[in-house]
Amino acid sequence: MVPTGEALPAETARRWLLAWPAIPLVNAYGPTECSDDVTHAFLSSPPASSVVPIGRPVCNTRLYVLDSLLRPCPLGIPGELFVAGTGVGRGYLFDSSRTAVSFIPDPFASSPGARLYRTGDRVRWLPDGSLDFLGRIDFQVKLRGFRIELGEIEASLRQLPAVRDVVVLVRQDSPGDAR
C-alpha cells in the first residue's frame, strides 16, 4: 500500500498494519516538480512514535537539508528540504520569476547546469538516515491534496472594498476535517 499526497498520520499507519500485517506501507513523499516521489519509507510494523518518517531518497535523487544560507544542517537539526537529481524539473512553464526562486543552481553538483528544487518543506535527518517531515517554512498549506498559498487568498480578499484586513488559516474543528 502506498499512501502519498498528504502526511501519513501514525494512527492510520498503525491501524493499517494491525489489520493487514502482511501488506507493508510505503510512505511516499515528493513534490510534483520532482517527478512526484523523492522519498520512500518502508513500514512493516506499526510506528513507535506519533510521527511517520518520509523515508530515504529514491534512486537518482539527492536530498539536502539546508539552512537559510544553503549550508547543510547537522543530523537532527531542522532545515529546508532541497531535491537534486534526474527527477528535478526544469521550472514552471511561462513563469520565469517563480522558476528562478524555486529551481536554483546546484552548488553540490559536479555537472554544469544541475538544479536544486527548493521544496519549502521543513525536515530533519534522523539517525537512521531517513527524513522527518516537520511542516512548511512558509504559509503554503496542503488541503485535500491541493497546495494553497494563504497569502494569495489574503491578497485577493484585501482588494474587496468592504475589507480592511484579513487573515486566512486552515482550521480543524474535528480530527481529520481540515477546512
CATH class of the largest domain: Mainly Beta
Q: How much of the polypeptide forms β-strand, as a percent range?
A: 25-35%
CATH superfamily of the largest domain: Luciferase, Domain 3
How far apart the termini lie comes to: 27 Å
**Mean pLDDT over the residues:** 92
**Global structural class:** alpha+beta
Largest sheet: 5 strands, antiparallel
CATH topology (level 3) name of the largest domain:
Luciferase, domain 3
In the CATH hierarchy, the architecture of the largest domain is: Roll
Helix content: 10-25%
Query: What is the overall silhouette?
Result: globular
Can you walk through the features of this model?
With 179 residues, the protein is an alpha+beta fold. The protein has 2 domains: 10-138, Luciferase, Domain 3 (Luciferase, domain 3, Roll); 139-179, GMP Synthetase, Chain A, domain 3. Helix content is 15%, strand content 30%. The chain is built from 3 helices and 10 strands, in the order H-E-E-E-E-E-H-E-E-E-E-E-H. The protein has helices at 10-19, 96-102, 150-158, and strands at 25-29, 39-43, 56-57, 61-66, 79-85, 103-105, 115-125, 131-136, 140-143, 146-149. Strands 4, 5, 6, 7 and 8 form a 5-stranded antiparallel sheet that branches. The model has no long low-confidence stretch (mean pLDDT 92).
